[in-house]
Amino acid sequence: MMGSYLGIDVGSITTKLVVLDEGDQVIAKVYLRNSGRPLEAIQQGMETIFTQLGHSVPIAGVATTGSARHLAAYLVGADLIKNEITAHSIAVIDMFPETKTIIEIGGQDSKVIVLRKGVVVDFAMNTVCAAGTGSFLDQQATRLGISIEEFGALALRANHPVRIAGRCTVFAETDMIHKQQIGHSVEDIVAGLCDSLVKNYLNNVCRGKEILSPLVFQGGVAANRGIQKAIERELDTFLIIPEHFDVMGAIGAAKLVKRAKPLKTQFRGFDLCQKSCSTRGFECGECGNQCEVVQLLVDHQVVACWGDLCERYRQSINGIAHGEEKRQIANKH
User: pLDDT by residue (tens digit) across 91-147?
Assistant: First the structure.
């Protein structure tokens, strides 16, 4: 039986899982909110994936990416861990090899990746402000009393988009409230917000980058037609939006582990979703480092540990005898 490959992308706000078959076709995928609980989100995602598959599919390899890629890797037993720039780039290059720029806007961050002849030559990520990201747009949609699905459609119906100060979330929200109070329509305010947030993204994240077409737009915000049209208007170009625009990082991770061809996967299995999973942290006082150690527990057993500079706790998990562990620690100090 042919194997399949699982890619997991765990970000600040959302968790994405994708299963690819041997032909790189998406046979199962899930996009869900973390709600501040990445472990539970990963378990829920795995349960959903297993249900979608509908039958036992052998997983030949697992890779993780995103800001919580290490946590996800420890939990599921990943064979490969890759940063999100690499994962997103591979997914796009395989589908659209002529691409020169990737715009990726997700729940909490945004990035631009510059490609030339299928190679990443530059990239940048927002590191300070969340203006323009999915979480901020969600907040403003809620405040305006509309669903995020309506947001883009309303922007397209605007007659006279207003100017919104989009350089940061606080100023943008304050300006929106002011525009509402003086009587501007919701459509014009939403369109103005889309325009200003796109300008903020281009002026900050893309500053100094050579933005050329073909240009791919992906991430959860790619579903927002108002943002899409604002980008096309500002750059005077047409955007390519992939079919699976919301899970491209997970697709890239799955493709990368397939290329790595692990001899035997470390995947813990889909029954992980039925197990108790948690983390606990403490400060080690054994030496002056005072490491903040984090342990991952599955069914109340410690299966992974990180944060200990001398690897005292990681060594004990790997079955190193206590006496030998002490000698190794002493040698490192």
Answer: 999 999 999 999 998 777 789 999 999 999 999 987 555 555 667 777 777 777 777
Cα separation of 118 and 275, whole Å?
41
CATH tag, 4-88+249-274: 3.30.420.40
Quick one: tokens of 34?
């973390």
The CA distance from 65 to 171, in Å, is 32
Architecture of domain 97-241: 2-Layer Sandwich (3.30)
Cis peptide before 262 (omega within 30 of 0): no
pTM value? 0.84
The answer to whether 211 and 122 have CB atoms below 8 angstroms apart is: no
Radius of gyration of the chain, Cα coordinates, nearest whole angstrom? 22
Enter the tokens of residue 43.
């378990």
| DSSP labels, 47-64 | HHHHHHH-S---EEEEEE
Tell me whether the CATH fold assigned to 4-88+249-274 matches the one assigned to 97-241. Answer: yes
Q: Where are the domains of the chain?
A: 4-88+249-274, 97-241, 277-332
Distance CA(240)–CA(225), nearest Å, equals: 13
Structure tokens at 236: 């005077």
